[in-house]
Every structure is written in C-alpha cells, then in structure tokens.
C-alpha cells in the first residue's frame, strides 16, 4: 500500500502537471501562418465550406489568385442548403474545380483548411457517407484532366479569404461569382495576403515579383502519370509542364 507521504506526492504531481503544461504552452513560440503565392504559370485556389451546427445550413466559397499575389482572378460563393461540414468542404472544392475547367487553367494549386479532406483526396480514402463519396469520386475524375495539380492543407489563418466568402454565402439567394473585382468584404484580407508575399508591393498597383528562370527539363515528355503522395502532397501528370512549388 502507498504511504501517506507517497499519496500526497502523487496528488501534487497530478495537480501540478496541468499547470506546467499550461505554462509550457504559454511560452511556446507561435507558428506564423500566412497565405503563400504560387509560382509563375500557376493558379491557386483557396476553398472553404462552412456549416452552422445549430441549423445545419451550409455554404461554400473560394478565391483564385496567381503568382502576382495581389491580383484577384475569380471568387465564388454559394449557399448549398442543409448538409454536413465535410460535404460542404467537398462541395467547395468540386465547384472550384469546375471553374478551373471553365477557365482553362492547367497548373492549379488547391488549398483548403480541412486536413481530413486533403487526406481523403491524396490517399484515395473511402468515406462511408454516400453523398460524400459521390463528391470525392467526381473530384477524382476532374483532377487527372489538369496538367499539374498541387493539393495542400493550410490552417484557417491562411485561408481567411475563402472562409469569408463562404460566410457571405449564407446571405445569398443564388450562387455568386466575382471576376477580377473582389467584393469589398475581402479587400482587407487580400491586401494583407499580398503584403505578406510581396513586402514592397501595394494592393492595386502593377508591381510584379522578380521572375525566376525556369529550370530546363528533359526535352522528351514522359508518359502521363498521376501521383498521389501524402508526404510531398502534390499531383502532377506531365514532366515537361511547370513543376509544383515546394509545399
């Protein structure tokens, strides 16, 4: 049996441990999270799905930008009725991919803040929900149609523009698309994202980042292939096309 002294010592450890953990976490340096711009020749889609827990009402949103960072290409927002959080995330990605095909963008970086969704796409995981699996199957049909495709996860702080559009969608009576001119509600977010990527540029001015000389690749194209790699997190289908940026 434990002595009275040992019992007190154990109680003291149990009480002090959460305090020490809290203090350790309090002093831990925060990890900065920022939106990253794609390389030259690439288009980046940030997408997000939103779901109100109380009513189950869901909406989607997404933002397309290119390597100039501050140049807004396209945004979309749509209310999709009652559904789950995962299906809203999948619907946001699916709608974004449909717009990719409509606009003829070949080299595309897809980024969302749902780690589960990214894992489902990259690792070809099956999901139990039939509607979710239907969305996944459709997405997996579109991705091979792209020349190059990068798929990554980002924390919500780096996905604020898409999150904002998804929240705006709750108030919309019909789907909305913005081309070249973003809604006022995300101007500040776009400005902050651009400043983080281009410290010397200001939003709305024609200031471009220095262009990098692309590396020479093998002149003979290889056979088309589709890669799903959970660690590297990219998918590409042609060696002679611009290679995916490093995550």
Q: Give the overall form.
A: globular
In oligomeric terms, what are we looking at?
single chain
Distance between the termini: 55 Å
User: Low-confidence parts lasting 5 or more residues at pLDDT below 50?
Assistant: 10-17, 19-24, 201-240
Number of helices: 6
Could you give a short account of the major beta sheet? 7 strands, mixed
Q: What do we call the CATH topology?
A: Nucleotidyltransferase, domain 5
Written account of the structure:
With 247 residues, the chain is of the alpha/beta class. It is built from six helices and seven strands; from the N terminus they run αβββαβααβαβαβ. The protein has a single domain, classed as Nucleotidyltransferase, domain 5 (2-Layer Sandwich). The longest helix is centred in the first third of the chain and has 24 residues, at 4-27.
Which secondary structure elements does this structure contain, and how are they paired or packed?
Elements: H1 4-27, E1 43-51, E2 57-66, E3 72-82, H2 85-103, E4 107-112, H3 115-122, H4 130-142, E5 148-153, H5 160-168, E6 176-179, H6 187-197, E7 234-236
Helix pairs in contact: 2-4
